[in-house]
Amino acid sequence: MEYLLNKIHFRGDKIIWAIMIVLFLISMLVISASADNMAASERYRHSAYWYFMRHFAFFAGGFTLIFICHRIPVSVYKKFATLTLIFGIALLLYASLSGEVTNGARRWIAIAGIKFQASEVAKIGLVLYLATVLEDNIFDDFKDVLKKIVLPAGAVCFLAFIEGTSIGLLFGSICMSILFIGGLKLKFFFKIFGIALAAFALLCISGITIGWPVRIITAVKRVNDFPFATIGLLLGIICILILILVFARSKLKYLFKICGIALAALALLFVLGLAFNWSPAVNVANKIENIFKKNDIKNADIKQADRGKIAVAAGGLVGKGPGNSTQRYLLNSSHSDFVFAIIVEEYGLTGGILVLFAYMALLYRAATIAKKCTRIFSSVTVLGLMLMLVLQAMTNMGVSVGIFPVTGQTLPFVSHGGTSILCTGITLGIILSISRAANNQAISNSNSNEKYAPDNSNEKITEIQ
Predict the structure, then answer these.
(1) What percentage of residues in the chain have a pLDDT greater than 70?
(2) Residue 425, φ and ψ in degrees, nearest 5
(3) What is d(CA 309, CA 166) in angstroms, rounded to the nearest whole number?
(4) 317, 350 in Cβ contact below 8 A?
(5) What is the pLDDT of residues 175-207, one digit of tens each?
(6) What does the angle CA 429 – CA 159 – CA 231 come to, to the nearest 5 degrees?
(7) In this predicted model, which residue has the larger pLDDT, 11 or 223?
(8) For residues 76 and 426, is the Cβ–Cβ distance under 8 A?
(9) CA 439, 440, 441, 444: dihedral to nearest 10 degrees?
(10) Nearest alpha carbon to residue 362 among 300, 428, 414, 408
């Protein structure tokens, strides 16, 4: 594989290239099985083959963008970071005012017959801008933080929140992660975190009382329909992770030990709770059992989220086989929001773990690339962009198995969708560009450490640092 990639002049991290090819093959297999359902949902305006070929064409465009973007120098991305952010804000503003409404959300823009989501462009600009600001500034005054970080990033998160609650929360989470990774002083970090929480609470109160932003009502309904015990568990895990990050920032070597102790304590409490019939533990166990348990409710009364759980439960260890999914005919978004559920139904737990492992491997490779980078912009950009992709993937998979409420997030580089595939291609291309630059820098440093022996024998020796 590595020889083939080198032969056709693909540069950057070879493992990322290989993972992208695997995700592409998985996506084509799933979409080929769901193409007929997509045609039926639009009353066979086009044939199933047409939808399959359109998906393939988008992937061709996505890989073309990856190849182009991974050959562009990293300095170019930094140069146009602010312009990209301004363009993303303009698209989000246009989408909130004049965008097309799909499934109750005004998030689509149509230009020359091509529909795309403004948030896909804005998230790239947001990461590039924050990485640029963190490299070019040493913040000692919170007024500078407000002007250069809070206001621009807040504008993007606010407009994204109007477009969709889950999108705004995803953007906010990425912003906080980038600021933490970028080394912003903790006193400024917590001030920004407090401002973000206050703004979130204000928007929620506004949505519930006066009905604006309108997507708040939909989000509240979905949360109300979701098991309260699971929500509490998720919030607890998030709080624990935040505390772990704060205390482990200066001593990262203790991070995994702390995580292990926390998970062991949580597992022990759960086991003891079941043993002594403690109601919270029993309720959580019942909820988990219900997620993977088939039921006999009539199809008309089953919600989309429940169908996703049924698809996951029906997959078993090895699945029903390619194209044998039954829930894809009943799930409205089997090719996008619930594509992971269809993967598990057709390829079983084995296929689901393979997809999960692929995204975890992408995040690991991003961390490896970041370690090689000598500039803050490069390291923050590669981690920020990859976190954006992986968190979106985790959200999509969590919805399919019933861990999260329905959010409408697609599975990057797998779900059907032109904008998502093309923008994911740009994102991965930027990451590979940084990887290529980091590899070249490592080679340059290696060559600079080579010296010749003093006896004029022309034999190279390597200086040990």
Answers:
(1) 71
(2) -65, -45
(3) 20
(4) yes
(5) 998 998 888 998 899 899 889 988 888 888 887
(6) 90
(7) 11
(8) no
(9) 130
(10) 428
